[in-house]
Predict the structure.
Amino acid sequence: MAESTAISLTNVSKVFKRYHHPVDRLKEILLPGKQRAEEFWALRDINLEIPKGETIGIIGRNGSGKSTLLQIIVGTLQPTTGNVSVNGRVSALLELGSGFNPEFTGRQNIFFNGRILGLSQAEIETKFDKIAAFADIGEFIEQPIKTYSSGMFVRLGFAVAVHVDPEIFIVDEALAVGDVVFQHKCMRRIKTLMDLGVTTLFVSHDANAVKTLCKSAFMLEQGKVHTSGRPNDVFIDYMKLATQIELQQSEVNIPNNSKPSILNHEDNSQLLTENASRRGSGRATIEHIRIFHENGDLAIASPVFKFDEMITLVTDVCVNASLEDFIIGFFICDKNGNELIGSNTKEENVSMGSLRATDKFAVKFSFRLPLKAGGYSLTVAGAESYTTTTCDWLDNVTIFQVQIPQSGKFITAAINIPMEVSIEKNMGIN
């Protein structure tokens, strides 16, 4: 393995045996020669080369093989076939409580975990106060961790994992359990590790977190690498796949002629990039998408808007099957796919009510673009409710530009909001 490579996996596969009855395992041992188990391949021929210092996102549906892959990299599982090479000290936060002894106190587990990760007693003593302060669980640090809540588990586990000078840091969805304040604290710490050149594997279903933290990502499906590339592209592919599988498992019966089709590129009254992608059940379809400038002019392909311009987004919808209700909304995303501006009819307290097949309607959203100069994309989607399969979802409908403010103001954040600033000098000085 090259010195610049942190993790290398070559043709890695992992099979588990599933027995229909517990006694079958014993029979297989006592009566060799007859297979009594069903084989389940959690991973199949995984090939990965992760350079040092990279932050990689890993996504996939439940059961796709993510946790098995991480355990093999960490070393708590051995692959059935293939080779794994890891170059550097690994610190991992996998499932809740992993690596902890429930009978030990938080203090004892800090020392226990630190020694497992290769630190000396003196090194752990030096780091203990920082770990305890980061975990911030108070007097519970002296209590057996079997008395901890799931949030306390995460706090202590993350605090230990990020303070043992890791060269490779792995976190598997555990942060979803912590409170909001601690999640922000963890994200800042992860960014610090990234700045220090720590190789990071980040497993999460939080699209924004992966897009913000990771330079690249890959998706696992049925134990294989299904897609890899830019985080936003991988998440779009993930959502397509998840929608397709959900539809296959449902009993929705829509006529073939009402399935979604890509909008007509030759129609200048609507916007659609060549990179646009679409998914959905087809129970309702978005037929046209138009954007109007503040002066009422229709925006053409790849439009350019003034800073803070008031624009109007119009979506024309055709209903293809009876619906109890319908929610339509949009997102304005940056180049990494982070959602900056967005809303929908439900959140704006606008109800469609019940709809019949062949009903048609138009929805208008008017809003400002207080965005710093740059390129952005538009996503538009509609669904019967928050819990049902999306009827129609279009990513990258158009790519547009926002100009620099004419005032010359330099905007540092993604979104600029009105602000009042005042200065009072010599206050409280006698």
In short: Residues 251-266 have pLDDT under 50 and may be disordered. The chain has two domains: 5-224, 250-402.
